[in-house]
Amino acid sequence: MANTSRVSKHPIGDTLNIIVMLLLCAIMLYPFWQTVVASFMSESEYLTSRFKMIVIAPTLASYKQIFQDGTIFIHLRVTFLITVIGTAVALFMTAYSAYGLSKPFKGSKIVMFLIVMTMFMNAGLIPDYMNYKELGLINHFAVYIIPYMINTFYLIIMRSTFMEFPKELEEAARIDGCNDFRIFFTIVLPLSKPILAAIGLFFMVSFWNTYMQSVFFITDKELKTVQEYLQKMISSTQELESIMQVESGEEGFSSETIRLANIVLVLLPIITVYPFLQKFFVNGIMMGSLKG
């Protein structure tokens, strides 16, 4: 029986590539690993540990202090609602608009030109603020959702995906009495799961990282996002001191371990979801990049 396995013609080059990739992975993972490990260190171990790669005596003192204070969970709730509602609304509106634009109609090229121009032209912060103020969005939760319901770049990708669908499916559905709305919900969306999952994850990450809107358009502390809270936690001492002064009965934490534990709590939700949707990345994005 012939040996069908293929042997690399460049074993040294392949080995070097693997070594380089492993080094790059280690360099990229080191800051994250250090943050997680150091968040479980006591104050004395944090000060004496040089590389912070391994924790000798793990402690939950920093996390207990944060949980006892509870401020971060107010902002986590806001960011969670922004992410869930924003992703659902933006994904539906983008897909719905892309499906309509994938059909030929009079003036479609002009409409697409105007839509694409929004990727390169922006009025700026002050006109945006004045516009949101006139619409009553300032200091309102809707300012996180409404201005970002449709993403032009993702709309173009999804439009290309819908243009590749076999026309026979839609024609057969119309013969059975389906209108455009029913075709979209019963045929187009079920067949677009990979692209919807991939773009949905991009939307999710984008909404989870909402920061600028919270800084410029929100003054109510109850509506501030966790990203702004985390930025204040790292750069100033006001938020940090309020946590440190809470009576939790725990000892061994420090200002640095408190900061690191907050970072871990903010990163944990999005990192948990990422692996489940990662498999859709290549398939989903390639579906929309084959035809422009």
From TrEMBL:
Organism superkingdom: Bacteria
Chief place where the protein resides? membrane
Going by the UniProt record, its keywords in alphabetical order are: Cell membrane, Membrane, Transmembrane, Transmembrane helix, Transport
Transmembrane stretches, by residue range?
Answer: 12-33, 72-98, 110-129, 141-162, 183-208, 258-277
Q: What Gene3D superfamilies does this protein map onto?
A: MetI-like (1.10.3720.10)
Q: Which CDD domains match?
A: TM_PBP2
Q: How does it sit in the membrane?
A: Multi-pass membrane protein
Name the InterPro entries for this protein. MetI-like (IPR000515), MetI-like_sf (IPR035906)
Subcellular localization, per the record? Cell membrane
Coiled-coil annotation reads: none
Q: Where is the ABC transmembrane type-1 domain?
A: 76-276
The record's section on Pfam families has: BPD_transp_1
Q: Which family does it belong to?
A: Belongs to the binding-protein-dependent transport system permease family.
- Give the protein name, as stated in the record: ABC transporter permease subunit
Q: What is the lineage of its organism?
A: Bacteria, Bacillati, Bacillota, Bacilli, Bacillales
